[in-house]
Amino acid sequence: MDFEISEQMQTILEMVHSFVDDELIPLEGEMLHGDQATIDAIVAEKQAKVRQMELWAPGHPVEFGGLGLSLVDHGLLTEAIGRTPLGHTVFGTQAPDAGNVEILHEYATEEQRDRFLRPLVAGEVRSCFSMTEPETAGSNPTLLATTAAKDGDDYVINGQKWFTSSADGAAFAIVMAVTDPDAAPHQRTSMIIVPTDTPGFELIRNVSVMGHAGHGHASHGEVSYQSCRVPQTNLLGTEGAGFRIAQDRLGPGRIHHCMRWLGIASRAHDMMCERANARQIDLDGSTLADRQVIQHWVAESAAAIQGARLMTLHAAWKIDREGAKAARDEISAIKFVVANTMLEVVDRAIQVHGALGVTDDTILSYWYRHERAARIYDGADEVHKTSLGRRLLRKAAGGDR
Question: Measuring CA to CA, which residue among 387, 379, 384 is closest to residue 132?
Fold first, then answer.
C-alpha cells in the first residue's frame, strides 16, 4: 500500500481542517443547546460555504455532482470532517444519504436516478434507509417481517420499522421488505423506494436515545407501513436482491463510519491532552499531565488510533482495487476494532475532564450518548467477530472461507 497522499488531496485536507476548526467546532454549543430552526439556518449557511469551496459531496459520483474521490481519499476526508458532529451534514456526505447514494448509483434505473439520486446528491432532499425492525428480526435481513405484496402494477407494503435514521424530514425511504417468503433466506427480500408522502407511510415517533430524541437528520424514526402502495417500477435492482444490495452498501459504508469514528477519537484525544496539561492538581503547580496513568492513557490511545486508522485505510485501499467481497475480512475487523477504540478514547477523555466531561458543556457527553450504538448498528460486534473468526479458522484448516 502506498501511504503517500497526493498534493491535491493534501491541499483539500488542509482546507477542511481549517474550515472545521474555524467554522464548525465553535458552533457545537449552539448545536447542543440551540433550537432546531437556528441550527438548520446555521447548517445551510455553512453548506453554502462548502459549495463555494467546491468541496460538496466529496465521495459521490462526479456525473451526479460529487467530487468522485476514491474510498481511501474519501476516508481521509471523512476523518477530518468527523471531528465534529456537524461535519458530514455540512459537507453533504452524511449517513444514511451517503449509503443510499451508493446503491442508487449502482442499482437505480435512469428514471430513478433522475427522480431520486440527482436531488439527493445536490442536497435538495434527504432520504432514509428502512430495514431494522423492533421485534424478532432486528437488523437481520433473513428474518424481516415487513412484506411487499404485488397487486397489479404495484407493491403493497405492510410492516413496522424502527431506527429508520433521518426519517424525520426525509423525502423518500429505501425499504427492505420480503417479496418472496418462500425463497431461500438470502433471496426473500427486495429494496423498494417509497416517497414519504405516500399514503400508508407514517412516522410514528423519533426514538429517544439515552434521554434525547433527535430531530431532522439527527433522528431515529419508528415508521409504520400500512397498505403503503408504490409502483413496481420503484424496485431497486431485481426482486430478491435486497440482501446482496445491503451487503454492497455496507462495505464502503463501514469505511465511512470507521473514519468518522477515528475523527471523533482524534478530537477526543486532543481534548484529553489539552485538559491534562491545563488541569492543576497540587499547590506545587503539577497537573494531570504529570501523572503516569494519564501519560499511559495518552500513549495507549494515540497508538490505538493510529493502528485503527491504518487498518481502515488498508481496507479502503483493498476495496478500491479488488472490491468489497475480497476485503470482507478487513471490513469485519475494522468494524469492531475502530468502534471500541473510539469509545475507549472518548471514555478516557471524559475521565480526564472529571465532572465537566459528563456535562453538555463539552462535546464529549454527546459522543458518549450517540456513539455507543457504534458497537450495534451495521452488525453487532459479536456478529462480526464470529463471522471473521469462523472464516479464519476455515482458512487455517485448509477449507473454503
Answer: 379
**Count of Cβ atoms closer than 10 Å to residue 225 Cβ:** 24
Of 145, 124, 121, nearest to 133 by C-alpha is 145
* Domains, the chain, ordered by start: 7-104 (1.10.540.10), 127-236 (2.40.110.10), 243-396 (1.20.140.10)
Q: CB–CB of 160/137 below 8 Å? A: no
Question: What angle in degrees, to the nearest 10, is found between the helix axes of 97-107 and 242-278?
Answer: 150
Q: How far is CA 183 from CA 137, 179, 193, 334, in A?
A: 17, 9, 21, 32
pLDDT (tens digit per residue) in 107-120: 999 999 999 999 99
- Give the 3-state secondary structure of residue 120: helix
**Binning pLDDT at 50, 70 and 90, where does residue 136 land?**
low
- In this predicted model, which residue has the larger pLDDT, 333 or 398? 333
Distance CA 384, CA 390 (A): 10
Q: Which region holds residue 336: left if phi is over 0, alpha if psi is between -120 and 50, else beta? A: alpha
What is the DSSP annotation of 336-390?
Answer: HHHHHHHHHHHHHHHHHHGGGGGSTTSSHHHHHHHSGGGGTTTS-HHHHHHHHHH
The cell numbers describing 56, all together, are: 460538496
Q: How far apart are CA 234 and CA 115, in angstroms?
A: 11
Q: Rounded to a whole number, what is the distance in angstroms from the first to the last CA of the chain?
A: 24
Joined together, the cell numbers standing for residue 175 give 425499504
Measured distance CA(339)–CA(242) in Å, rounded: 26
Beta bridge partners of 201: 225
* Prior bond of 96 cis (ω within 30°): yes
Q: CA-CA distances (angstroms) from residue 392 to 328, 329, 330, 396, 399?
A: 11, 9, 12, 6, 10
Tens digits of residue pLDDT in 322-358? 988 899 999 999 999 999 999 999 999 999 999 999 9
